């Protein structure tokens, strides 16, 4: 039976992670087997990015921040590898296997798209610990790092309901898949519970598949947000990776609120010109999860099985960096009350 465990408390919060600096790659000679069985060749953490790559100011950058923290704390080499356009599962498997063969441990695939490739690579390198973000993969040496995105999104919905003046808010999802449905479901529930059904939610998905650019096309995000704003949405929440930058740009141009995702996007340098319109962000501690797995391997107690990051362990949350967040009447109190309700179980958040 697959071991399922609940991670106690992650060692680093999203808000404290730096999202800038350059990667430090590293390689070693072929040790002929899984990481950890090739003499003293254990180079440390390696991550393989999801669509959009480093610089998305969101999901992938949060993972990189976790790598940076591990690199600084443990003093070892790291590697971070970009995806290629139109790549196959076989390409992903080769990337993961190559990192394990070089001696990196753990090897983490950032994103559900690595599922089939990781299952295959983990079997080939049983002494390497693998990790996957946002998916569950069976394997004795695999840690599945999953999040309660719906909980953070519920809080974002509470904030949107309190901030809207038009009683219309928007949601832009990158790709029409179950993972992003969790964001939409939590957001809609938070809006409806807070407003008593008085606030309308307009939802749109940018593409049906990731290959069509739903997570990597700011122009698509911008166009979708502009359409929602034309329909009177004055708060737009995006769960769209790199495409979300376009959503934020459109909101700022129209002088309405944007809600960021994954990282505290109010704090990100690349979005500085729009920051006053980023009301909050639904936080997802991808960096904390990456770091926690790296630490477990460094401590020779590698995590395996499903590791769930939720509100109880600060694995998800809602940012309060923008000073305007505290100025909107009743917003912070409503968010705090909702958070407490989710944690004590009195609020059950939907996932679809």
- Helix-strand pattern, N to C? EEHEHEHEEHEHEHEHEEHEEH
What's the helical proportion of residues? 25-40%
Distance N to C terminus: 27 Å
Q: How confident is the prediction overall: mean pLDDT?
A: 89
* Uncertain residue ranges: 1-40
The structural class is: alpha/beta
Tell me the strand order in the biggest sheet: 1-12-6-5-4-2-3
Give the strand tally.
Answer: 13
Q: Taking Cα atoms only, what radius of gyration do you get, to the nearest Å?
A: 20 Å
Number of helices: 9
> What proportion strand?
15-25%
Features:
7-stranded parallel β-sheet, 6-stranded mixed β-sheet, disordered N terminus
Verbal overview:
The chain has 352 residues and is α/β, with parallel strands linked by helices. Helix content is 35%, strand content 20%. It has helices at residues 59-74, 89-102, 115-124, 149-163, 178-195, 218-230, 244-254, 286-298, 331-344; strands spanning 4-5, 44-48, 79-81, 104-110, 130-133, 142-147, 168-175, 200-207, 235-239, 257-262, 278-284, 305-309, 316-318. The strands form two sheets. It has a seven-stranded parallel beta sheet, with helices on both faces. Strands 8-7-9-10-11-13 form a six-stranded mixed beta sheet, with helices on both faces. Helix 3 (115-124) links the parallel strand 4 (104-110) and strand 5 (130-133). Helix 6 packs parallel to helix 7. Mean pLDDT is 89; it is low at 1-40.
